[in-house]
Amino acid sequence: MAAQRNDDSFPTLWDELQWRGLVHVSTDAEALSTLLEGEPFTYYCGFDPTAPSLHLGNLVQLLLLRRIQLKGHKPLGLVGGSTGLIGDPRPTAERTLNSRDTVAEWVARLQDQVSRFLSSDGENAVRLVNNLDWTAPLSAIDFLREIGKHFRVGTMLKKDAVAARLNSDEGISYTEFSYQILQGYDFLELFRSYDCVLQSGGSDQWGNLTSGTDLIRKVEGKSAHAIGTPLITNADGTKFGKSEGNAIWLNAEMCSPYAFYQFWVNQADADVIDRLKVFTFLTRAEIESYAAQVAEEPFKRAAQKRLALEVTTLVHGAAATQGAIDASEALFGRGDLTALDEASLRGAVAELPQAPGATGAPVAQLMVDAGLVKSLGEARRAIAQGGVYVNNVAVEADDRVLAPTDLLHGAVAVLRRGKKTLAGVVVAE
C-alpha cells in the first residue's frame, strides 16, 4: 500500500488538490493556496449521522482532510449531533426524523470512523467535536436574536437544495429550511473556539458552506474559507458509489470487504485513473504509469487491481483486503476455498445468488434453486458434461448430494457452473 504523503512533485498542495480533481468550487483560490503553504491553521468538515455509517462520498472528504493534515494543519472532525436531528434538505423530499437515541448512537459510530482516517498523534492530531454541545444550550429566542438576524430569507431561498424543494410538490418545512443557519453557526462557533478558518464539503453543500463564511464576516468582521469538492460521477454520467440502489458503506457489516473490493476492481477503464487520483496516495508518476497501462493493456486491469488494493486496505485493513482477494481467486477456481476464513467466505457468498440447502439435498436441485439452471434436466446435462463444481471439485454423478464435508465452516458451500457462473448454498443454523 502507498505511504500516506503528499506528492512533492507539485509546487504547492493546492496544485496537487486541483490535479487530483478535489476542488470544484472554493473561496479565493490564491488566498487558499497561500493559507495551505503557511503556518498551521485549524480546518474542519462536518458529517451528519443520518445513517449508522459513512459512505464513499464521505471518504472523499476524509481523504481531503488527511491530505491537509499531512501538510501540518489541524483537523476538526465534526459529527453533527444537532444537525443530524434535522438533516440537510434533500432535493426531492423531506427526511424522516430519527429519534434522539438513534442519532446519539450513530454519532458515536461516525466519530469512531472519522478518527480512523486521521492521525491522532502529534501537535496537529485530529480533534472530534459535536455541534450538539453548543446548540443544545441555546434557547430559541437566543438563536433567533443572535444568529437568525444575520440571515436574509431572500438569500436562503436561492440556495440550490432549498430552491429545488420549493419547486417540488413536497415543499420544505421550516425545520429543514433552518439547516443552513445551523451549519453557518457551526462554522462561527468553531472560528471562535478553535480559530478554525476553513471548511470543506461536497459542492452540493456550497450554500451551507458559504452560510458560515458569510456569518463569520458579518459577526466577526473577518474572512474564512471554504472548499467544495466535486460530486463524483462515472464517465457515463451516473452517480458514483451506488450499487443497485445502495450506497457503498465504509462499515464492514453494511458492505463486506469482499463487496467493497469488488466494487473498486470493477471500475470502468474510463473512470479508474480519476479514482486513483481522488482515493489513493499514489504519486502523479505512479498514476500516469497506470494510465499508460490502461491505454496499452486494458485487459490486465492493473489499475483497477491497484485501486481496489489501496482503497480496501485503507478502509478495512490489510488482512481483510487479502481475505477479499483470496476469496475472489478461490471462487473462480484459482485458490483454495477451504483455506478462506469464515468472514471472507461469507462476505463473498453474500454477493452471489443463493439457495437454502441441507445435507442430503441433491446438487442438481440446488442448481435449479440457485438459478444456475432452469430445470433438473439441464442440471443433469451440465453435470454429465463435466461443468459443475461444488467447492471447486467437479461433480461426477447426477445423483450427487450435498455432504456434511461440503459445508465450509459448517454452513456454506459454493456451486459453480462452467468458469464464471456461481451461486452459494447456505445451510440454516
UniProtKB/TrEMBL annotation:
<dbReference type="Pfam" id="PF22421">
    <property type="entry name" value="SYY_C-terminal"/>
</dbReference>
<protein>
    <recommendedName>
        <fullName>Tyrosine--tRNA ligase</fullName>
        <ecNumber>6.1.1.1</ecNumber>
    </recommendedName>
</protein>
<comment type="subunit">
    <text>Homodimer.</text>
</comment>
<comment type="similarity">
    <text>Belongs to the class-I aminoacyl-tRNA synthetase family. TyrS type 1 subfamily.</text>
</comment>
<dbReference type="GO" id="GO:0004831">
    <property type="term" value="F:tyrosine-tRNA ligase activity"/>
</dbReference>
<dbReference type="InterPro" id="IPR014729">
    <property type="entry name" value="Rossmann-like_a/b/a_fold"/>
</dbReference>
<keyword id="KW-0963">Cytoplasm</keyword>
<dbReference type="InterPro" id="IPR024107">
    <property type="entry name" value="Tyr-tRNA-ligase_bac_1"/>
</dbReference>
<dbReference type="InterPro" id="IPR024088">
    <property type="entry name" value="Tyr-tRNA-ligase_bac-type"/>
</dbReference>
<keyword id="KW-0030">Aminoacyl-tRNA synthetase</keyword>
<keyword id="KW-0648">Protein biosynthesis</keyword>
<feature type="binding site">
    <location>
        <position position="44"/>
    </location>
    <ligand>
        <name>L-tyrosine</name>
    </ligand>
</feature>
<dbReference type="InterPro" id="IPR054608">
    <property type="entry name" value="SYY-like_C"/>
</dbReference>
<feature type="short sequence motif" description="'KMSKS' region">
    <location>
        <begin position="239"/>
        <end position="243"/>
    </location>
</feature>
<dbReference type="Pfam" id="PF00579">
    <property type="entry name" value="tRNA-synt_1b"/>
</dbReference>
<feature type="binding site">
    <location>
        <position position="183"/>
    </location>
    <ligand>
        <name>L-tyrosine</name>
    </ligand>
</feature>
<dbReference type="InterPro" id="IPR002307">
    <property type="entry name" value="Tyr-tRNA-ligase"/>
</dbReference>
<feature type="binding site">
    <location>
        <position position="179"/>
    </location>
    <ligand>
        <name>L-tyrosine</name>
    </ligand>
</feature>
<feature type="domain" description="RNA-binding S4">
    <location>
        <begin position="361"/>
        <end position="423"/>
    </location>
</feature>
<keyword id="KW-0547">Nucleotide-binding</keyword>
<keyword id="KW-0694">RNA-binding</keyword>
<feature type="short sequence motif" description="'HIGH' region">
    <location>
        <begin position="49"/>
        <end position="58"/>
    </location>
</feature>
<keyword id="KW-0436">Ligase</keyword>
<dbReference type="InterPro" id="IPR001412">
    <property type="entry name" value="aa-tRNA-synth_I_CS"/>
</dbReference>
<dbReference type="InterPro" id="IPR002942">
    <property type="entry name" value="S4_RNA-bd"/>
</dbReference>
<dbReference type="InterPro" id="IPR002305">
    <property type="entry name" value="aa-tRNA-synth_Ic"/>
</dbReference>
<keyword id="KW-0067">ATP-binding</keyword>
<dbReference type="InterPro" id="IPR036986">
    <property type="entry name" value="S4_RNA-bd_sf"/>
</dbReference>
<comment type="function">
    <text>Catalyzes the attachment of tyrosine to tRNA(Tyr) in a two-step reaction: tyrosine is first activated by ATP to form Tyr-AMP and then transferred to the acceptor end of tRNA(Tyr).</text>
</comment>
<feature type="binding site">
    <location>
        <position position="242"/>
    </location>
    <ligand>
        <name>ATP</name>
    </ligand>
</feature>
